[in-house]
Amino acid sequence: METLFNPIKINNLDIPNRFAMAPMTRNKSPNGIPGQNVADYYERRAKGGVGLIITEGVEVSHPSSSGYPDVPGLKPEAHEGWRNVISQVHKYDSKIFCQLWHVGAIRKPGLPPEPDVPGFTPSGLVRKDKKVAYEMTADDVENMIEIYVRDIEIIKDLGFDGVELHGAHGYLIDQFFWEDTNQRKDGFGGSIQLRSSFASEIIKRARAKVGNDFCIAIRFSQWKQQDYEAKLAKNQDDLEALLRPLVDAGVDVIHASNRRFWEPEFQGSNLNLAGWTKKITGLPTITVGSVGLESDFIGFYQGMTRNLTWLLWAELYSRTLNGLIKLKKVVTMKLFPFLRSTQRIIINLAP
């Protein structure tokens, strides 16, 4: 447990502890502009002591990227709002990455900002044999890579500490990764290495623009919202084939998303997806997926008692980070049956 409170260095960025706040869509930025309410939200997390905050998904600057209402973007009108967010977070020595997000085939017809623009995808597929969206041409792919790169330059110029590419959960980059949705015959489809080329090309070109010191992260997952049982990598060799091009392109940290973080990824090892990712790449990794829960996230929200108990645990966590309480010793009892985290923790008031 003490390790979680130790600082960590990613690239040349010093992060005060090992707690990272995963991105969570909020739908609180009308017209794509983050207001004071957004800054206040992130400030509260920084004040609570979270070392690294990853923003909610921020739309790539292409009209096909939007899939949900009131998601923030990077247009000029949003820049002042983002600078305010960054300033509020930095007051507490927390660091903040901007997550760059394109929903791909998840986009439905008729959505803003341009209702006639379809979802852009590598092969028009939202899942295997289900073609619902636009298949990108070679020129489209090239143009989209350049838009990502320009957005990353904007993110750096705004003062963010890094960028995270959303390459998980069945969105655009993940649709390039996944063989069920990537049936391309060019250099961006085919083998697992080639299917990682879209992401690695973004990273490589962005690295050339923003320099070696700016942090670049990527989030990926085996599971998809279209298919919880999906697998990009069936074994560690597949995983290395997927990740190695990203490492060679210059990624600094890899965020591995599981539905249940405690489950082993491959037979014969107790390592989860983040554990295997670190073993293969040697890079810092982030693990996520029902952290603190005994059951799935959605099941957790069944019943008021569970909700109240979670709020109590969240308050204890926040107070621990602020030094209002401290951990005294490890115990073996479970304080609450459905919370994995609390089975090892007892607290004592700080003097």
Describe the structure.
There is one protein chain. The chain is an alpha/beta fold and 351 residues long. It has 2 domains: 2-291, TIM Barrel (Alpha-Beta Barrel); 293-351, no CATH class. Helix content is 33%, strand content 19%. The chain is built from 10 helices and 15 strands. It has helices spanning 36-47, 76-90, 138-158, 172-177, 192-195, 197-210, 236-249, 273-281, 297-300, 304-321; strands at residues 8-10, 13-15, 20-21, 52-59, 95-101, 120-121, 125-127, 130-131, 134-135, 162-169, 215-224, 253-257, 285-288, 325-329, 346-349. A 7-stranded parallel sheet has the order 3-4-5-10-11-12-13. A hairpin with a 2-residue loop joins β7 (125-127) and β8. α3 (138-158) packs across α6, α6 packs parallel to α7 and α7 (236-249) packs across α8. The longest helix has 21 residues, at 138-158. The two termini are 20 Å apart.
